[in-house]
Amino acid sequence: MKKLKEIAILIVGWGFITLGVLGLFLPFLQGILFILIGLAILSSRSKTIQRFLKYLED
User: Which of 10, 41, 44, 48 is the most buried (most CB within 10 A)?
Assistant: First the structure.
């Protein structure tokens, strides 16, 4: 069950990042917003992303 939760987090996080990249080129999607949401979701799994988000806060 824990493995399923980890996979779901990865899928949802990368899904938001994918939407964000598409949103950079499509006028009706807010690309940066989706990328930041995806990074926030994935930050629970990656120390590198946690440091990057901390850098953006400062």
Answer: 41
